[in-house]
Amino acid sequence: MEGKVPQFVIPAPSVVALPVAGTDALFPVRRVYCIGRNYAAHAVEMGHDPDREPPFFFQKNPDNLDPSGEFPYPPKSTDVHHEAEMAVMLKAGGTDIPIDEALDCVFGYALALDMTRRDLQGQAKKMGRPWEIGKAFERSAPVGPVHPVSEVGHLSEGAITLKVNGELRQEGDLNQMIWKVPEMIAYLSEYFELAPGDVILSGTPAGVGPVVRGDVMEVAIDGLGAMKVRVV
């Protein structure tokens, strides 16, 4: 019947939403796409040739995004790595988006970490299996507040770093991305129908490495400030 309130057979999942910096508003999350090996030096340290590989993506789940400032060390792993990234939040989408129109889809940017059960990911790679067991576990993507484009502009260059307990581990520049933000959006839209609320994790520079309980990670990007995350 028109206008009838739907009756769910189980409680409906809550909408995953992230704080928008400087406001009480929230950014609702629909999907999370992650590009792999998007910095040349990181591709090399992972044993690949960045000049010969087209882009590829894997996915995390919306509720993997976690703004709490804590990262619970996950089960079934003894080798969990940090990967500092910039997250791109979309306000619009579509299919076959032209590169020169792609930035019009961006609402804002945020600091993020793509935490990885490297040992489980490695096992999956050897067996030709998907990566979700190594990438899409609970709270595997610590994230900071969303900074709107209206406040910070579009970020195409600037330092990206990660420290663990004050020691510099990762250092790069956003301009070192092999596939830039407009290209990522355009490429994804050839294979998926992008939509408002989609998030893209844009890759990590070289220097990924393990963390243990008690470590404090600090990721920073010029224009987005810094974010500390404690491993618990």
Number of strands: 18
What is the helix fraction of residues, given as a range?
10-25%
Termini, distance in Å?
Answer: 49 Å
Look at the helices and sheets and give the structural class.
alpha+beta
Q: Outline the low-pLDDT stretches.
A: none
| Rg of Cα set | 18 Å
Helix tally equals: 6
Corresponding CATH superfamily: Fumarylacetoacetase-like, C-terminal domain
CATH topology: Fumarylacetoacetate hydrolase, domain 2
Order of strands, widest sheet = 4-3-15-8-9-12
Strand content: 25-35%
Quote the average pLDDT: 94
Major sheet size, sense and barrel closure: 6 strands, mixed
CATH class: Alpha Beta
In N-to-C order, the SSE pattern is: EEEHEEEEEHEEHHEEHEEHEEEE
Named at the architecture level, the CATH assignment is Alpha-Beta Complex
The best one-word shape is globular
Whole-number tally of structural domains:
1
SSE topology:
Blueprint: E1 17-19, E2 26-28, E3 32-35, H1 40-45, E4 57-60, E5 65-66, E6 70-71, E7 80-82, E8 84-90, H2 99-102, E9 106-113, E10 116-117, H3 118-126, H4 132-135, E11 141-142, E12 147-148, H5 149-152, E13 159-164, E14 167-173, H6 181-191, E15 199-201, E16 209-210, E17 216-221, E18 225-231
Parallel strand pairs: 3-15, 5-11, 6-18
Antiparallel strand pairs: 1-2, 3-4, 7-10, 7-16, 8-9, 8-15, 9-12, 13-14, 13-17, 17-18
Domain Fumarylacetoacetase-like C-terminal: 32-232
Organism: Meinhardsimonia xiamenensis
Protein name: Fumarylpyruvate hydrolase
